[in-house]
Amino acid sequence: MNITHLYGNLYEAVFDCNGHYIKQVIYFILEGSKALLIDTGYKSEAEELKSYFDKRNIEAEKFIITHYHDDHFTGLKTFRHGLVL
Q1: Out of 8, 14, 17, 37, which residue is the most buried by the measure of CB atoms under 10 Å away?
Q2: How far is 46 from 26, CA to CA, in rounded Å?
């Protein structure tokens, strides 16, 4: 996973294909120690990002799921708590 600061409090997490046919990208917005995720990727990507957050005391608090494809929402269960907007 490679995290890039894009602008302001917007970040991009890019993942290798991990057996999937496409590269996965999860965007997130940080406000202090709270994060809003735009999609959650597959479970494997969500787990990797959650581990990154846990090490930095960041809580994934809100989620925007852009559409109902596996690569956009199946990682949601990894975070267990939060509000889906």
Answers
A1: 37
A2: 9
